[in-house]
Amino acid sequence: MPAPRERTPESILDLIGNTPVVPLRRVGRHLPYKILAKLEFLNPGGSVKDRIGVRMVAEAERDGRLAPGATIVEATSGNTGVGLALVAAVRGYRMVFVLPDKMSTEKIRLLRAFGARVVVTPSQLPPDHPMSHYSVARRLAKEIPGAYYPNQYENPGNPDAHYETTGPEIDRQGGPELGAVIATIGTGGTVSGIGRYFKEHRPSVRVVAVDPKGSVLGPYFRTKKLGPATPYLVEGIGEDMIPRTVHFQYLDEFVEVDDRESFQMARRLAREEGLFVGGSSGSAVAGALRWLATRPLPEGATVVVILPDSGDRYLSKFYSDDWLREKGHLDADATAGDLLEAKEFHPPLVFVERTTVVREALALLRQHGISQLPVLAGHDNVGSVYEDEILRAILEDHTVLERTVTTVLGPRFGEVTRDAPMGELVRRLREERAVLVRDPGSGALVGLLTRHDLLSYLSHKGSDHAL
Q1: For the domain 358-461, what is the CATH code?
Q2: What's the rounded Cα separation, in Å, for the pair 142 and 73?
Q3: How far is Cα 239 from Cα 236, in angstroms, rounded to an integer?
Q4: What pTM was computed for the model?
Q5: Catalytic residue among 34, 38, 49, 107
Q6: Residue 224 catalytic?
């Protein structure tokens, strides 16, 4: 009996959605969770925004706002423009897209390749400034006869697309152990639509938004006060105003990450996972790891992280060492967090409590091939134990093995925060054998760095720092 024939798509638009998930095997391997990356950059236009492009155009056609042969005008950071350009190319519309000038050259060239007219406006202008990309797009939509302005920042089709497609896909792909969905936020459509789906269908699933430092969204979520935006480099996420498509009631938590974290994580995803992604994907994974380091879910839970777009539109930016060096984000600006992630041997923080028996502490040291352990009481750093001190004590009195580690307790390790710069680490490890690393956001201790870790990192990077 012949095999059933697959249905041939009517157009490229039929291939939008149903993106796969893959586990992150190396990034985040120190956490006790199954972390799945949802590959939205495998949509035909290269980003999650394909979903809303086809939805907003279909709705406008249905209710008569978009006539055959008309012009689509949109304010975009690039990806929504590409999603709309796919639809416009297939259905015969003209296109005008307005972008702020911080967006990559690749995005502008990509939009022009689809036949779009691209208007570039100055960045860092208030949303109501007449030259902001929002204001220019509105003006052009009024001036061009019959133009349709989708306005992704207010269009309910934006979150609805994710409520109806992305949320159910994640529900199926995450399986019964799904504990959280983590996504970056800009217009809010992706995470709000997903959040609404899970609040209605599986309210136990936590929905976490990742926002760049400098955006107003995270601070507003916490304080309900709209403060000023400050400049940041990562593209396509964060906002300087509150879009109507952000529905905070469906979001459980916010995590903020900075440019350097975002860019370095994106580069790690390419080199360690084979995932060639944009800066916002780096933000999503960096934010996910920061949140998951607080152990918010049962061990073994599944977490889905949305990777919004492809890296091919950032080759002239953070994939360029020269650009990163110019912006001050290359290796000279490495931090304690970078060293933790780069460690060849990187389990969760191995520690003992004051009630741990010396025999068990010695077994832990040998199991992990390390020579020292912090002694913790909750998140408090209360002391240390070293293998050589244990062995010295056993030679004097073998019954020490059955006593608690308080009998061989050494002084507390020094501490640095995850964002401590390389210079501080070099200074500290000149004087101390090891330092604990504490996450400044959660307050949790997340790792231990030794002189060996620092030397391995510097030799691998070819740095000229020395102890």
Answers
A1: 3.10.580.10
A2: 10
A3: 9
A4: 0.74
A5: 49
A6: no
